Structure formats: structure tokens, C-alpha cells
């Protein structure tokens, strides 16, 4: 890059470092600051599809194996993301060959790990609050990383240098900027942007996927991680060859436009948790509904009136069958099939529940007027977990003097509530309230026929109770 392609001495030093390590950068791209998104890549002239934007040798990647620390201490004895976090801390502190890269990385963050409790309170109702993991992060720091640093002080140096602030900073770099880069002999077309895994070693929405992912395959990729992402705006994609990683344009990019890498389109809650920004219009927003809420509402006194033991039995059985403990409503606005099956399972009387237990198969995910009524009740209860209404949030967002973090919190919760509202409209549209009464009538008619058949056979009233209808 020429001086026209960069705007700061740090950027120029970074570009010089890239070139000295065998990277090539197309002169048609540059680096600049974008409001609300930080540093990113810009097209300095019109770029055609399938243009090589830059090429990086694998030797420039920062991983647990390329860090010199891996040959000096047993990193494999550390768990989760701690080996990679420690590798970054070590290379940062010893002013290693990656210094020009570190100098370009952010030192302040708006991701949720760095929000105060009052700021996080503005996200009340959003499931993202369960994924921040600050306590877990600080536990891993105190109980795993610091003792390891003490044990290998001859290599790692002064324990006081390995501060909690630096731990969080390196963890946030990994969370927001790292890629999953398979080894050169893998038969994949491209490395995948790491979508989960963070400095907190905490539970996340894709915990099982994280557990399968080998931290040795997670890499910091200089230059590639400078490209931002925005919903539906990607125009570049990272591919790899045995010895290089190549960023290619995937669409025409006019001069002056930002270059966006191809990542999955995450909801605003995830953008805020990982990257510290949101998209004002994000078609990927989603809402999570916990199994506990569904069991409590449908299996409670106003529903099928199951005892606590009965509720637990049915919930545990569903989990054993592979039904998740969280149901996700996304932009399709369709109720998850597992949610419908769960509602119908909770509405079964004991005899019918025992039948499906023997078959080891929950009821079919077929929505009917009665289960639709309970689906609406679940959506309403979930909406009540937010402290403000859609209208109140829309009024707040219209204000021009909101501080950035408050605006982002409102944007997240508003997007989730809109998903709930539209999903509710869809269910009510398919099953208007009067359809429930018709459904009840049909259920009562079926029950009457069963009771009559039992009476014709001389059955007792006790036998008739087997067909007791679940309370609506």
C-alpha cells in the first residue's frame, strides 16, 4: 500500500510488516476509519468480482503453534481458549514479530464483556445476558492462567504483567477477530470465521460446536480481520491454498465503498456481544425461549396442571429425545417444530403421555387451535420479560442524544420484540381465537364418544377418567 492507502503511521508500519513477511496487497484497496465500525478496508477504485484483494502466507498467522511459547511450556495442559489467550498475552508482552499487528488492534471495546451492570440492565429480557460470561472468564484467569504463569515464570516472566485487563483484551481480540483455519492438507474451500468461543471459556449458544472445535485451528489472521461485516452486505471472501490465505472479491465494489468479508449473518445480540456494534436494520434478529418457561406455563395450574414431578419427568424425557432446552424464533417467524411438540407433550393426559413414552417419540409438531392458543400465551409471556414496549423503544430510538451503548441495547431488545410480535401475528392469523373454541368442541366430542363406548362395554366411571381432557 502507498501512503494514499493508509492514514496513520501505525497503518503504514503494519503494511510494511505485511510485505516484509511475504504478503501482497492489491493497490486498489486501502484502510480507513468507518463511523460506528472502526477501522476497515475501502475500495480506492472500482473492483471487479474475482479480484485478488490480498494474499497472506500461513507463516504470518498467530496461533498456539506459531507462537514461540508452544515450544517452551505445555500449553496442552490448559483448557478451553486459555492456551490461545495466553499465547497472545505472551507475544504482546515480549514485543514479538507481531508487534505491528498488535499496534493496530483496538484497546477499548464496546462488547458486552466491558459493560457495567447498569448498562447490562438495559438488555433485560434478552437471552444474550446469559452469554456474557464475565464471572467464568475471571475464574479461568484466577484459577488456571495465573497459576500456570507462576509455574513457568522462567519463561513467561513477571506474573504482574499478566493483568486481568490484558486477559480480557486478548480474549476479546479472539472473540471478535479470529478465524477457524484448517490445516493445509484439509479439503475445504475456505477457512471459516470463528462464530463462537470466547475469552470467558463460558457456555454459549453453540457450546457443543465450540467443544468440538480444536483451539489449535483457531488463528488470528492479520489484515483479513480488519474487514468488517454487515448484514447482507458481504462482497469479499477468504479462501486458502496450501501455503496462503487469499481474500477475493465476490461482487463488484465501487470506489469509496467498504469491503465486507463473508461471515454468517448474526443477530444484533451476537454482534453486540462479540464485536460491540449493531446493525440498525438486521434481518437476522432472533429470540430464544427457554424450555423452563414453556413447562411452567403449559404444565402449570392454568394449563395441564401437572405436578412439579410430572413437569420434570416430561421435560427430562424430551431432553433425552434430543429436544433442545432452548427454542429459537428467527426471521422465518415459524414456530420451531420442537416447541410445538413440547406444547403438545405437556398437554397430554397421563395415559396418552405414557403411550408416547413407550413409542419413544413425542407428538407430531402439528399446530392445532388448542396448541396454538398456548403458543400465543408463550410468546406473550416471553414478551413480558422485557421492561419496555415496542412503542416505547421506537420512541427512545428516535432521540438524537442517546449515548451509543444505550442505543445499541435498545436496538437489540427492539429487534427481538419485533420478532415476537410478528410470530404472534402469524399464529393468530392462522388460528384466530374462535378456532380454539371449535377445537375444544371437537375434543369434547371425541371424549364423549370414548366415554359412551366405555359405558356400552360396562366400563366404570373410574375407567372413563382415562380420557380426561387436558385443561385448556
UniProtKB/TrEMBL annotation:
Keywords: Methyltransferase, S-adenosyl-L-methionine, Transferase. The keyword Methyltransferase applies. Residues 185-218, 425-472 are annotated as: Disordered. Pfam families: Rubis-subs-bind, SET. GO terms for cellular component: nucleus. The keyword Methyltransferase applies. Residues 27-264 form the SET domain. InterPro entries: Rubisco_LSMT_subst-bd (IPR015353), Rubisco_LSMT_subst-bd_sf (IPR036464), SET_dom (IPR001214), SET_dom_sf (IPR046341), SETD3_SETD6_MTase (IPR050600). Residues 198-216 have a biased composition (Acidic residues). One of its GO terms (biological process) is methylation. GO terms for molecular function: protein-lysine N-methyltransferase activity. PANTHER family: N-LYSINE METHYLTRANSFERASE SETD6, UNCHARACTERIZED PUTATIVE METHYLTRANSFERASE. This is SET domain-containing protein. It comes from Microbotryum lychnidis-dioicae (strain p1A1 Lamole / MvSl-1064) (Anther smut fungus).
